[in-house]
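Below is how a single chain appears once it has passed through the pipeline. First comes the sequence as given, then the structure the pipeline wrote out for it. We keep one example in the README because the format questions we get most often are answered faster by looking than by reading.
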Amino acid sequence: MQQLEVLHKRNLFIYYSMTISSLLYMFALFSGWFLDHYHYPIVILACLALLGFLFFIKTPPKFMQMMLISTWNVLTVFLVIQSDYVFTLYLFIFLILMFSIYRSIWINIIVTLICSVQAGGILLFFFPSKQFTPYELTQTYIFFFSLICIISITQSICVRKLWKKRENANIKREKEQASTEAYLRLFFEHAEDAIAVFDLNNRIREVNPAFEKLYGWVREECIGHTLPLVPPQNMEVAEKRRTQLLRGARFHLLETQDMKKDGTVFDAQISLSPIYDKHGEMIGTSVISRDISMIKENERLIIQSEKLKLAGELAAEVAHEIRNPMTVISGFVQMMNDDERSPYKMYTELIQSEIERINVIISEFLVLSRPQVETFNTIQIDEILQDILQLFSIEMQNRHIQYNLQLNHCHTTIHGNANQIKQVFMNLMKNAMEAIDENGQLDIEMCNDEGKLYIYIKDTGSGIPPHLLERIFEPFYTTKSKGTGLGMMIINKIIQDHKGTITIQSEENIGTSILISFPTINHGSKVD
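Resulting structure:
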């Protein structure tokens, strides 16, 4: 394959040389040098057109080589015959020199012999005998033949070495270029990060398999199209960034959000760069992106863990330093409350209620600081939920709140602390009931799948605004006038201590959905 490619390039060189030589001849012809041979350009153009057509239809290089050698030789003979000048015989020497590019000893020998015979025949039969004596013809032919032999030997030794050196350099450069392109293609195809190449109109020119996997678009859907890869809320920022990119700016490891084909928005880390050609002109842009959603989630969990740790350390100090003196204060205030004749009874009752509120805060602190690993036992989540619903049933009936518990015949046995799990669901249901207006709905559904128990709690309450939902597990953050801001944080900690997860989704004026999962003791069967 390599040899055929080299032969094809040599054929092109011969064809272009023949074309240039023919154009120069026709220029001389129409300049008045050979006014009696106007029909000859038609023959030349016809031959060039035929050879060009053979190149166009991708004729095999070997056959093309034979056609080029034959055609140029025929044209040379025709020109020499039509001319009355002996110097045109030197066109055969030019022909031999040109065919030396093929670097073939056999071609050189055959062409040399043929040209020698053709030159002798032309001298003998076509030039007027009155111009030359037999002796002069013999001398001319011997000189011409000797010159051809000298040129053939010279070109075989010198020109061949020159072409060989040049071709070796070209082959080496092409191999290096092909090797570089192959490595770049391997890198492009097997890179773990998603890579996309865009033109200056933001149409995709190429994508790698990692891009297809990350964004969900197949290559055929990408090439030549502009895709919605940025969420609508980020379009303005993305357009400004693209404008800067087209001006030559670069963006390295920029954290943003991108969008998949199905509309899923994910955290991405992207690098944007312009692409230039060898002349320094910008011809496109490239984007390298990776999904960092897991990294962001891990960072969030680490921050949350640090907050829990800080709250736990604070809880240990607060509980021991405040609870004892508060017990003494509470005792004396209670004695004052028992005195019906006390003029400060109204104030002492208020103080007592605030002391009780302080005790609630201290109790919540203790939950954060108290290790519970050794108190875990086998518990049934369905029994706990039924007890809690029974506890709140009267209040829900009074407020005309419909509730529904669906167990789906699943295994609900987990390893944990019954009091803590009860505290989790009591707080969640209490929050749901506070958010639901009268005639609302509260649904609880359970199922298990692949060794995990899922509890899905959905209410039709007022919902949680997005800016509040982001901070829902932060300590001391609450929207309630009498809240401590520790309830959801305690819920999250208890669930984490039980190796579970909690996910909250909410829309204002529509409701809130909470998904909790716990590892089960027995996997049981899958429930759809």
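The longest strand covers residues 265-276.

See the next section for the split statistics.
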